[in-house]
Amino acid sequence: MGCHHGIHTPTTRREMLSRCALGFGSVALTSLLGKSAFGNLISDKNPLAPKAPHFAPRVKHVIYLYMDGGPSQVDTFDPKPRLDRDHGKPFGMHIQPTQFNNIGKTLKSPWKFKRCGASGIPVSDLFPKVREHVDDLCVIRSMVSEFSEHTNANYFLHTGLGLAGRPSMGAWVTYGLGSENEDLPGYVVINGGLTPPGGLDCFASGFLPATYQGSVFQPKKLPVANIRRGERTADLQRGKLDLLRKLDKGLLSKMGKLDALESSIANQELAFRMQASVPELTDFSDEPEATKSMYGVDSPHKQTQVYARECLLARRMIERGVRFIELTCPHVGGADRWDQHGNLKRDHENNARAVDQPIAALLTDLKRTGLLDETLVIWSGEFGRTPFAQGANGRDHNPYGFSLWMAGGGIKGGMTYGATDEYGYHAVDKRVEIYDLHATMLHLLGFDHTQLTFRHSGRDMRLTDVHGKVITGVLA
């Protein structure tokens, strides 16, 4: 009997499968953990891992062309013949309190409007190249804002609240969707030279984890400071980063969940990967010369060159899965953004010249590559301008009725939506609020804006607060 003590009855195939069934999942899990994206997601709960929206999205990405300062609606996309008839006369409507008190006479547009495309939508001579794409644009002429001062209006446009401290729309998008590229940020701001009034808080994560804040790039060869590897070899830098990660995790285990520290760990890892991805992203040598010329990279105007690089960089980011990209304006000498309280003709022309060719090229390129079908492009300032003069040749701020346009997946092109009065002063038909713009953007990305929430201070917070409705009339 003792001789048979160590002998076991052979296991049958049925018994083996019964005992090992649960182990097969571990084999698959081990394979997934070998990939950094899944490894981070499972071991570290990577906040930028791709996430599913509430329903099937129409678009995957957003490019926000922010026109800092407030372009004039009656000089760009909302022509008003009444201004021509009343030019130089006292303004014919009650004047709301303005930002400044130097109120002048009714001021006609210095530019002619031309109807283009099959839709025949009139667009100002300020944008001769953009208007060639008018059949792809949905021009909303009835936008309103709650603020007539730049800083508050910028916070409101970007975050849904006229004060600092709330998450920006780009932060909400990456919070909801994560990122498609683990080697690049999900939310990028390409700074052409002008940081909006309100500063970097316009692009902040607010009460969301810091991982979701905008990463600021410059439109140049190395757009991120200190992106070059500091150590002699990647292995040496990887070793230092691993040590730092180990120390940070030790601190987390003692102190519990700390957003600043957890986000710092995630950002350090992302920065390490960006050292390889960013130089390739911003190397335009693989772009055909004809493409670069179409954008205006070789333009004789420096500001056009800057914005051309911004737009081309945005397209390359979309190709690589970046979710939300905002472009700021280049600094045009002699002009204070689009904020023309004086010298309207000179400075609106200089600002338009900087962006017209690059934006038209971006639309052409996105459409050519099929990316426009999965990208929402928005052109907007924080408010518009008055149809009467400030002084002799400027326009004051006007939040009561202004224009923006959208193009891309899920949007009806070749149409206008809403209207202002005969002077272009107040929205009078199909009034659209900033909350509605945010709700529509989120809808196209696959979200019910009332359900994309984050618990903060005992309340489920959202980008649209307790407001907002999807602008169904602009949806394809």
Can you describe this structure?
The protein is an alpha/beta fold and 476 residues long. The chain folds into 2 domains: 57-223 and 285-474, Alkaline Phosphatase, subunit A, CATH 3.40.720.10; 225-281. The protein has helices at residues 13-33, 36-44, 81-86, 150-159, 169-177, 234-255, 259-281, 289-295, 302-319, 344-369, 434-444; strands spanning 61-66, 103-106, 113-116, 121-124, 138-143, 187-190, 215-217, 324-327, 375-380, 384-390, 394-398, 402-408, 415-417, 419-420, 427-429, 454-456, 459-461.
Concise summary:
With 476 residues, this protein is an alpha/beta fold.
List the helices and strands and how they pair.
Layout: H1 13-33, H2 36-44, E1 61-66, H3 81-86, E2 103-106, E3 113-116, E4 121-124, E5 138-143, H4 150-159, H5 169-177, E6 187-190, E7 215-217, H6 234-255, H7 259-281, H8 289-295, H9 302-319, E8 324-327, H10 344-369, E9 375-380, E10 384-390, E11 394-398, E12 402-408, E13 415-417, E14 419-420, E15 427-429, H11 434-444, E16 454-456, E17 459-461
Parallel strand pairs: 1-8, 1-9, 5-13, 6-7, 6-8
Antiparallel strand pairs: 2-10, 3-4, 5-12, 9-12, 10-11, 14-15, 16-17
